Amino acid sequence: MTCSPEFVAAPDWTLAVRSAPGADWDEFVDRFPNRPVYMRGGWPALAREVFGHETFFIEARDSSGALLGTLPLVQQHGL
Length: 79
Known about the structure:
four-stranded antiparallel sheet
């Protein structure tokens, strides 16, 4: 399965699924003091590089391109 950017647009925001986090991903996540470490962009990338899992980075952005929300996903296969 490959991940090309897919977009869902609404009047005030856009949702994109990417294979890598945007440059502003970690800066956005770090604004939340109680965030778990696995929300940072490097955590799913580690799972991809070490274990070969497929990763997806979902980003919600407003009409100016500012990041509104993030969701990192790692696809794992069962035993």
